[in-house]
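Structure first, sequence second, as always.
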């Protein structure tokens, strides 16, 4: 049976012809294809104003991004066959990079499955479904995951606010098996206990793993300050690589408690200390007390979640970097990162330049980092590239 047709207005096909996969509601020719004729999750055939077929997509007529293209074939269907092919392909790619089953298995559009993120923690899967199109097909999705990976448990991590916009429930559910009371993963030669039910996002942040490995190589015999430390993913590998001392700072009591557990798990508690504090306040106090660290890691949560928050978020990033530079020891290293899509690499570059000049420091960028290979970037979808990291050597002005 042919999919119903979704027509675009004139000239609204250019981005899609370049490879993007999103159709915005204001791009739809609602005279030819009224949006109210579709149900959330319906498959549609996307057609340019000149009649050329652009592909098949699933639709949610009540959302801003109202359709997401799944295939350039006009009759493609989302279901068990598509899931099986695309998840197997994504799995093969991850296994080329990682010898152990700890990685992001599916990264939405970059793996051909918009609205779906899956993190693999050995035999436990954390699945985020953020669109009605994928949610409507979750039963065949689960069937494929069970057959392909034989997991012990699958958690549907439904606490993402985007589900509310899609008209979906936000209560997380164990959809298969039983979540173990203690879940331990491996990354960068370290072990981490994680909480995928109550933890942030899917329960872990695999995206920074390459940059964290690079930091560990720099940490030997150094004092390290890990700001917004969460569960210790930056700090613990540094301590394992014989950092002299690692100080983890986070405002969350539960995050600090988890980081302490992970330090104990990796037998590095004697080289680590933990401070529950607002990071801004901690840095101000550290500056007053003239504390200095050889390496400062600044990896805050997304401070610009929406485009309209750019001005206040930019100022927050500026203040953080400005303060972090002031607690660096002579010839120190600042690792400054941002996961805010709306803060560009150029923006962060400018923040670092201006902050260093303001306090009369000489700063040079010695390395850059980004998303690990399990977070591939779709070349036509800039939204899939969000992470940026600068490794900066900082010294007295020459």
């Amino acid at each position: 049976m042919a999919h119903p047709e979704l027509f675009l207005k004139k000239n609204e096909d250019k981005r899609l012809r370049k490879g993007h996969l999103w159709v915005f509601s204001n791009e739809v020719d609602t005279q030819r294809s009224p949006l109210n004729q579709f149900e959330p999750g319906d498959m549609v055939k996307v057609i340019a104003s000149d009649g050329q077929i652009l592909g098949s997509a699933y639709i949610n007529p009540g959302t801003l991004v109202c359709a997401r293209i799944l295939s350039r074939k006009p009759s493609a269907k989302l279901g068990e066959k598509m899931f099986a092919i695309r998840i197997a392909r994504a799995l093969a790619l991850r296994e080329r990079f990682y010898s152990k089953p700890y990685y992001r298995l599916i990264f939405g559009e970059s793996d051909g499955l918009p609205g779906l993120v899956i993190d693999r923690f050995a035999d436990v899967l954390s699945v985020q479904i953020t669109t009605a199109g994928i949610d409507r097909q979750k039963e065949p999705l689960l069937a494929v995951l069970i057959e392909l990976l034989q997991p012990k448990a699958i958690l549907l991590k439904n606490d993402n606010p985007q589900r509310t916009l899609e008209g979906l429930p936000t209560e997380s559910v164990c959809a298969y098996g039983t979540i173990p009371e203690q879940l331990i993963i491996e990354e960068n030669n370290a072990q981490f206990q994680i909480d995928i039910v109550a933890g942030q996002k899917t329960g872990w942040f695999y995206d920074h793993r390459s940059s964290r490995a690079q930091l560990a190589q720099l940490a030997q015999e150094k004092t390290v300050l890990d700001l917004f430390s969460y569960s210790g993913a930056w700090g613990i590998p540094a301590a394992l690589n014989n950092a002299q001392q690692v100080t983890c700072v986070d405002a969350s009591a539960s995050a600090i408690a988890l980081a302490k557990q992970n330090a104990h798990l990796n037998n590095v508690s004697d080289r680590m200390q933990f401070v529950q504090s607002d990071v801004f306040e901690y840095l101000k106090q550290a500056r007053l007390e003239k504390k200095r660290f050889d390496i400062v890691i600044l990896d805050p949560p997304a401070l610009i979640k929406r485009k309209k928050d750019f001005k206040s978020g930019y100022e927050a990033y500026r203040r953080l970097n400005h303060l972090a530079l002031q607690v660096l020891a002579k010839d120190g290293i600042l690792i400054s990162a941002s996961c805010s899509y709306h803060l560009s690499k150029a923006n962060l570059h400018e923040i670092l330049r201006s902050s260093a000049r303001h306090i009369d420091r000489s700063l040079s960028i010695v390395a850059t980092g980004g998303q690990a290979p399990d977070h591939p970037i779709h070349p036509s979808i800039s939204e899939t590239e969000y992470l940026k990291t600068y490794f900066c050597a900082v010294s007295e002005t020459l």
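Margin note: Residues 102 and 121 are 5 Å apart (CA to CA).
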